[in-house]
Amino acid sequence: MAEDEEGLGAKVKARMKDYAKQKWENSKQRASDYKDEKIANTKERAQNAKESVKAVPGKAYRATKHTANQVYDAAWQGTKNALNAAPSAVGSGIKTGAKAMFGSSYKIFFWLALGWHLFDALWMGFDRGGAGYGITLAIYTIFAVWAWFIFDHHGFMDSLKALMLYFFISAICIFAPLSRMLFPSAQAVFLGLSIPELLHLILFFVPVWAVYIGSSFQYGGMKLLRFIWFFAIVGTLIFFIFSSNAWEDLPGAPASKVPLGKFTDRIAEGLSGFIESLRKLPNQVVTRIHNITIGPTYQAEVEQNRGKQLGVYLESVEAIPRTINVGERVDLRATIIAKSFVNNTKVTNKCRLTNSYFTYPGYTDDRFGKFTLAKYETRIISCFFPGTQTEKINISRPTSIKAEMISTFEFETWGYVTYSFISRELYQNTLSQQKDANKEYGLDKYPEAVYTDGPVKLGLIDPSSPLQLPWSLTDNVENDPLLPDFGITIRNKDPFGRVVNITDIQFIIPKPLTIDETSCLPNVVKFNPVITDDQENNVYTLKDDINFERKTDYITVRCFMHLEKGNEGINTLLQDGGVALATLAVKTKYTYELARSTTIKVNPEDTR
Amino acid sequence: MKLNIILGLIIVSSLLIGCVGTDPEITTFNPYKGSDGITMELLNNAPPKEVYEQDSFNIVVKLHNQGAYDVVSNPKDSSKNEYAYFRIIYDNFYFEMADPNAQAQTVYKQELTGKDPFDHYGQFELQDFLLKSKTIVGQRESPTTKILFNLCFPYNTLLTEDVCLDRDPFGLDIRDKPCTAKPITLRSQGAPIAITKIDPRMPTKVAVDDKGNNITLVAPTFAITLKNVGGGNVIMKLDNKIDDQCVVKNTDQKYWGKIKVSARLGNKNLTCTPENVSFNNREAVTNCRLQPKSGDVDKNGFMPILQVSQPDILIINTSYVYTISEGRDIKINRGTTLP
Q: d(Cα A405, Cα A350) in Å, to the nearest integer?
């Protein structure tokens, strides 16, 4: 029995083994057949694709030609029709356009809002002081109310929320420009613009109400806005880049090449200045922290001049020709403009070729090397690099190198700050009657500090602890009266220039005010004034010992003030009326070096 | 017949019209109105808004007494030595007097009579000052600077008002009475300090006179509210020191913002507490009552009153020194311009 079972089991095993083997063989065969079929299909498809690709250019060409013919025919027919229909089309086009632009209350509101924004930006300069604030407040309040009437709302709560939104939008329009006051205007960070100036630019390009309205109505809203923004941005960029005589045709310059070259130079210059500002930033932050422990940095507003701002400008630097071979002469020309109310400007010019590896000086002849510019004068200056200089350039491939024009000149920048003084008794009496002394006596609450434009900025007010006026004085105390301190900060303004040295600083202090020389806190300046006395002012002049180190980028001098003869001086200052005005002035005279560059392409050999 | 009737009517009408007539309305001018004392007004373009450097220009000021008080001097009475003082204050850095001999801060004094029934306008005077702008120092192109103007003058507020001495202030007596004591609201009295409210209080008591009869006594008290309506500052007036008081440094701080009030009820003097009143938020209040032990007033300030309420006249007088200030901006342009 057991043997039978064993034999049966073996038979079953064997049969199962054969079955499995047969199955495996079948599967293998099927897989192989499938694989061959697939490969064959793929090859066929690839072949077909190849054939198709080869046929595409021909098809495309035929299709394009056909399409072009159709377009041409249509265009010609269209042009003929248009020419025939033009007169009436223009008329109806204007009508349609006008209707499209002004045909609804949304659109009228849109254009008014945009128009007012442009007026606010270009005419008023986003002024939010005095009358400017009142006008702006009124206009934007009207906009908010007008929007509430124009736009649809459903229900009381929706209507209320909408009204709050419109007033919020108006509040942004009114108060956003005040953000410019949060940042100092002394530091240029991009394309010669400071942060307040950049904010001004951003505000100009964002007409908040026009954006909101334009996004709220369907017909042409967004397309219209895109067009306006594109046009405004491009137009403004073109204006900024080419605003300074960029299109003037210099003698001998190939006119067709001038615009593009100037465009790239300007961009390169702007980027270079921006990178330079970024590079200096960490050091300036450290320096600023360091200087805060010694004394404040002072600020002031620059006076806006009629026409060109005061200063010396180096513009339109151009190389002729712009591409040379090694060993060829190249000339460099520029326009120098000087504007000054006090003195003629003595200028010394030079030029150089420079890149990372070399610097070669250029040559000027007597007419352009040293001369004096009148109080307002424009002159073209020239410098050249002879072949004997350019042949020293050792390059193996075409290279762009910088050609730099450098002008050194003497200039004066003046700063003015006006303080008001009042008798303490008069001041306290006014306050005790709940009156504002500034309004009562017509006095400014904060001193007005102004400096005249030029390559250097002067600051005269400490923004971190602004002085409030009028400054009250009394002789009913034993000690000498306490007076506000007086300080100045001298700072380089032009990122492409530097102060070589400061030759003279003068403080002009009206009597009976004086400076306590022993109290002065210099940054890097020793205070050894030579005091001269005119009839109305005490004049302190610093000569020598003025060190303007490049790494600090600015210097600060601060001194305490006193009154001559102590308490008696109060009566001299205030006299019988109990109120006095006093303007303090500062003159800084310095030597400044200004550099402007352009690029020249130098080829290693005659590749023409 | 009809014609006769018509003619008769015409004649009668003419007689009637001729006899009746109309009296012209008689109006009297009241100078004790308005909140101005002496005002200063700068004429148009004097000073101008813009001048050139080294340019002389005029400042013309009109001083006008628009109130009811005469600011004049009496040569026979040294206590009446009063003027209005006008000052110009400017920045020496930009301006100087065209006359080199003039003082740096010009003071001008003027007497001015106020309004009265014969002069409804009040006296005014024009005064001309000549200033000169200096050469602009340095590189500044067109600085803007201020010129300040200050006016200081002594003045007086006088009020005469009918009041009622009410022996029945609570209305317990149902009989009609000639008058009732009630608060009086006023506006102005032709001066920069106005009396705006008089609030009477009439405490009463009954006493027995020498003959054994009951008499009613009343102690009239008036709470007087004053208000500074002229827009300027007030200083207590000290006799014989007006010249000094318009010089800031010579006025003690304790006199700033205060005035002295005096009052009379008929021919009886009132004592005001406080006598030297301080202004707080442009208002001041003082209580005035009968002076004790004067005439028929007893030691507690009560006086006898008739059997019925009786009207009387309250006279309030206050003297002070008043100052007003103003400022103007002037832009100075360079003589030569550059493009």
A: 6
CB nearest to B91's CB, from A435, A571, A581:
A581
Within chain B, residue ranges assigned H as helices are 2-20, 242-245
Helices (H) and strands (E) in chain A, counts: 13, 21
Residue of A nearest to B235 (CA): A429
Query: Quick check: A436 and A480 in contact, CB under 8 A?
Result: no
Q: How far is Cα B112 from Cα A451, in angstroms, rounded to an integer?
A: 46
What's the pLDDT score for residue B62?
Answer: 93
Contacting B residues, span 196-225, partner chain A, CB-CB under 8 Å: none
Contact call for residues B196 and B186 (beta carbons, < 8 A) = yes
Q: Whole-prediction pTM value?
A: 0.65
Nearest CA distance, B24 vs chain A (angstrom): 48
**Contact: B141, A441; criterion CB under 8 Å:** no
Contact status of B243 with chain A (Cβ, < 8 Å)? no
Taking the CA of residue B180 and the nearest CA in chain A, the distance in Å comes to 36
- Cross-chain CB nearest to A583 (options B93, B249, B337): B93
pLDDT in tens, B85-134: 998 999 999 998 888 776 555 678 889 999 988 888 899 999 889 999 99
CA distance linking residue A337 with residue A341, whole number of Å: 14
Alpha-carbon gap, residue B91 to A418, rounded angstroms: 9
Encoded amino acid at A424, one letter: R
Residue type at position A70: Q
Q: For residue range B147-196, what is the model confidence (pLDDT) as tens digits?
A: 999 999 999 999 999 988 877 777 777 777 788 888 999 988 999 999 99
Whether omega before A512 lies within 30 degrees of 0, making that bond cis, reads yes
Element (DSSP H or E) covering residue A601: strand A579-603
A27 three-state secondary structure: helix
- Residue A120: the pLDDT is 86
SS3 at position A259: helix
Cα separation, A452 vs A540, whole angstroms? 20
**Chain A residues in contact with B327 (beta carbon < 8 A):** 441-443
Q: Give the distance, in angstroms, between the CA of residue A583 and the centroid of all CA atoms in the same chain.
A: 33
CB-based contact A442 B249, cutoff 8 Å: no
In chain B, residues with a C-beta closer than 8 Å to the C-beta of A475 are 249
Q: What are the pLDDT digits (tens) for A316-334? A: 899 999 998 888 999 999 9
> Does residue A256 register a pLDDT over 50?
no
Q: What is the pLDDT of residue A257?
A: 36
Is the Cα torsion angle B25, B30, B36, B38 positive or negative in sign? positive
Beta bridge partners of B51: B332
pLDDT digits 0-9 by tens, A131-145: 567 788 889 999 999
Tokens 């001999």 belong to B101
**C-alpha closest to that of A290 among A552, A579, A486:** A552
Tell me which of A426, A452, A472, A571 to substitute to probe the interface with B (most B C-beta atoms closer than 10 Å). A426
Q: Which of B123, B313, B98 is nearest to B200 (CA)?
A: B313
Q: In angstroms, rounded to a whole number, what is the distance separating the alpha carbons of residues B126 and B146?
A: 22
CB neighbour burial string for A366-398, b if at least 16 within 10 angstroms, e if fewer:
eebeebebeebbbeebbbbbeeebbeebeeeee
Distance from CA of B86 to the nearest CA of A (A): 10
Contact A581 B281 (CB under 8 A): no
Give A445's contacts (C-beta < 8 A, 6+ positions apart). Answer: A438, A468, A469
Q: With an 8 Å Cβ cutoff, is A538 touching chain B? A: no
- Three-state SS for B266? coil
